[in-house]
Amino acid sequence: MDRKKLRNTRNGSENVRNSLLDKRATNLCKKAEKFSILCDTDIAIIIFSWGEVQPIIWKSTNLAKKIEKNE
């Protein structure tokens, strides 16, 4: 199966790059959720973006419960 070649997103506007980042982050979190369920493991993802103060943070539900329990 061939993979699609990624377009060079540097030439696009900032809004286009931000929307691509949001889509990719959403898809990455969905895949991580499926992977955590399939392998019964805890997963956390932190995505940093240029110019953003807060990173995008995602954690599996089991990990979230463990973190809340320890606080």
Automatic annotation (TrEMBL):
Single GO molecular-function term? DNA binding
Q: Where in the cell is it found?
A: Nucleus
Gene Ontology cellular-component terms for this entry are:
nucleus
Q: What is its main location?
A: nucleus
Stored SUPFAM superfamilies: SRF-like (SSF55455)
Record's keyword annotation contains DNA-binding = yes
* UniProt keyword Glycosyltransferase present: no
Keywords from the UniProt entry: DNA-binding, Nucleus, Transcription, Transcription regulation
**Residue limits of the MADS-box domain?**
1-49
Q: What is this protein called?
A: MADS-box domain-containing protein
Q: Which organism is it from?
A: Solanum commersonii (Commerson's wild potato)
